[in-house]
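Priority: medium. Attachment 1 of 2:
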């Protein structure tokens, strides 16, 4: 009788352990979805992936790895005016991102979705100024839409309106003897 009771308890414990496995991993269409992770920047799409994760994970260390030394952010025409310039450089972009994500006046919550599929993303070759510092290089640009929800404080949340688009341009940069894709231009195109 005791052996039978121990066997029943052992079977019940095993069943509980087995049924509890994988509860933290949702299954979608019979597969466990991949956990988003920072990529090594050896492919162009890694830049978009990592940029999105910078915001979602509030990882400002990664923003510096993404931005080329000659990076430029271009505001949409509708945003320019008053204290908003036509463009700004790498240092200003990094400072703005750090302020939004980790500074004393950081956003309460950030949800950003750069909408792209790495397998169907279309890149267009761009030849920079042949007389400039990047003569002989070929850059690549792509245009995608994005969605965001930014909670500034308890009573103020900014949510995407329409279908805002952005154009990203990347270049393969030599970083200490190794080639990595880096973001050289970010053009906010606003709504389509």
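Attachment 2 of 2:
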């Amino acid at each position: 009788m005791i052996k039978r009771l121990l066997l029943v308890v052992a079977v019940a414990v095993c069943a509980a352990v087995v049924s509890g496995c994988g509860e933290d991993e949702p299954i979608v269409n019979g597969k466990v979805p991949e956990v988003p992770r920072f990529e090594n920047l050896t492919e162009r799409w890694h830049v978009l992936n990592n940029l999105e994760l910078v915001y979602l994970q509030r990882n400002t260390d990664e923003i510096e790895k993404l931005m080329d030394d000659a990076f430029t952010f271009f505001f949409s025409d509708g945003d320019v005016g008053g204290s908003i310039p036509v463009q700004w450089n790498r240092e200003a972009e990094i400072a703005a991102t750090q302020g939004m994500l980790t500074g004393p006046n950081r956003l309460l919550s950030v949800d950003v979705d750069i909408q792209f599929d790495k397998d169907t993303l279309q890149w267009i070759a761009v030849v920079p100024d042949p007389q400039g510092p990047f003569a002989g290089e070929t850059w690549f640009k792509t245009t995608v839409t994005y969605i965001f929800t930014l909670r500034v404080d308890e009573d103020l949340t900014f949510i995407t309106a329409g279908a805002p688009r952005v154009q990203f341009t990347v270049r393969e940069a030599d970083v200490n003897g190794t080639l990595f894709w880096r973001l050289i231009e970010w053009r906010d195109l606003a709504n389509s």
